[in-house]
Amino acid sequence: MHELKVQFLGTGSARPTPRRNVACIALSYGGDSLLFDCGEGSQTQAMQAGLRTSRLRGIFITHFHGDHINGLPGFLGTMGLNGHREPLLLAAPRGMKRYFGVLRDLSILHPSFPVIHVENTEPVVFEGDGFEVRTVELDHRIPARGFLFVERDLPGRFDLARAKEIGVPAGPLFGRLQRGESIEVDGRVVSPQEVLGPTRRGRRVAYISDTRPTREVVEFVSGADLLIHEGTYSHEFHGQAVERGHSTVREAAEVAKRAGVKQLIITHISTKHNDTRPLVREARAVFKNTTIARDFDDFEVAVPE
Q1: How far is CA 242 from CA 110, 196, 251, 265, in A?
Q2: CATH number for region 4-154+200-300
Q3: Active-site residue, 67 included
Q4: Which among 32, 37, 67, 210 is annotated as catalytic?
């Protein structure tokens, strides 16, 4: 099974501070990496985190506010200087092609690799090796999208005792059965179904930034292994959250609870909150398995039992 890891390269909102850069999250799965948002300074954060941009297959931009996109031209330019030549998908709300065209016309950016533009109008915006990325509309001041990484269903657990009982020798044949292939042993065909348990649902990681809570988001992230959700303010600033199209940490926790996710990580923290301990208490009062992200935190999403 592939390792599934999330790295937080920027966890602040609006503007960078010495403690928090602005929005950027990297997801690694097998040999592929994906980037969600690309705020100012993201390429420096990626270098410090040891992210291998040669493995980057897609960048997914939630919306066109500067703290989510201002780092994109520099990030793409550095990728080219580093010798990246593979195609890169660039998904964003409508307007990305126009934005990219301006960068080209002004000679700010001429990528040395193919860039595939997807303006998020379809439920599935990217299909990779063993996974896909889905999208949902958010409720922000301007058009914004959330994203869901969905691993394809995993084979059931391998029954070692049963395999030995029917005469399958230890070694490569075990692996073939686990990959869903039938094999032949002493003239008899052994199917994967004979030694594998029920199929398991693949892992799911949701990234929801800059939105008011909505029923559509709750349904979209339902049952996710990991929900990464913005929590810009404590509930003390609920009025400001409503005015600016954001969620409080309590509201993020309520989304997690209603959606039945396994783990919640809150990001996009306002500069008002240097001490995040009150935010943790506020969120955990609603949804216990909550963490407030910090720059350079990384989390591995375990394979389901």
Answers
A1: 39, 50, 11, 21
A2: 3.60.15.10
A3: yes
A4: 67
